[in-house]
Amino acid sequence: MDLKSLIRDIPDFPKPGIVFRDITTLLRDPQGLRYTIDFLAEKCIDAELKADYIVGIESRGFIFGTPLAYKLGLGFIPVRKPRKLPAPVYSVEYELEYGTDCLEIHQDALHPNSRVLIVDDLIATGGTASATAKLIEKIGCELVGFGFIIELRDLEGRKNLPDVPIISLVEY
Ligand code: AMP
């Protein structure tokens, strides 16, 4: 299936010069949605990642990470923006183009010997995924890979990630 044909390009969003890859058009397509999750699951199985948990990044990482976890028979753990999670958290700050941002995970979400696959909709510079990897390291878990629907190759986000398998379904 041609997933690119279901992803909508929105030029100059959220600011001039950025082409926003809009996955809402993919999500509303029944065959497209099913194919996306099945294809991602298949690639994870082929890569023999043997994850115990999917860690999904707010908020589009939740949309793809949860059905992937269901399909693979794994648990799902959310990484959220600050002050959203109710129990004690670990936090990580990371650099944005202008300023910094922060992500959080529940301190008791993972046992230190768990194997974790991080999922988000898209990798651009890799800053968000790399910050999430730091949270996993902080807990002492084993990071076994990353899964993305979309990869923006020109931004070379892979170079900013730890040396584990990186799965993506569509490249721009
Ligand atoms: P980065 O940290 O630079 O890898 O950016 C990844 C995060 O920003 C993901 O959570 C994406 O949802 C979002 N993002 C970055 N660039 C785009 C884009 N061109 N279109 C849609 N989402 C984007």
Notes on the structure:
The protein is an alpha/beta fold and 172 residues long. It has a single domain (49-171), classed as Rossmann fold, CATH 3.40.50.2020. It has 4 helices and 9 strands. The protein has helices at 24-27, 30-46, 60-72, 127-139; strands at 8-11, 19-22, 53-57, 75-79, 89-95, 100-106, 115-123, 142-151, 166-171. A 5-stranded parallel sheet has the order 4-3-7-8-9, with helices on both faces. The longest helix is centred in the first third of the chain and has 17 residues, at 30-46. The chain starts with 7 loop residues before the first strand and ends with a strand. The mean pLDDT is 97. Bound molecules: adenosine monophosphate.
